[in-house]
Fold:
Amino acid sequence: MKKTEGFWGSTPKIENISFPVRGKMQVDLNDGRVIVVPLSAFPSIQKLPMQEREKWFLIGGGYRLINVTK
Structure:
């Protein structure tokens, strides 16, 4: 029998995006989970200067991000 894990039945939304550690991006979800990924996985974000990385806005009720520098 298959065991289910995680947050089944919930639709996570992005609450915040930040760059707390050099070379890492952190995404906070509304269900309490935090995702930290290396910026090397996102070359278009990695090449932005730190000032421009902070110019992200949530759109679509927390389902999408947009950077105002593009």
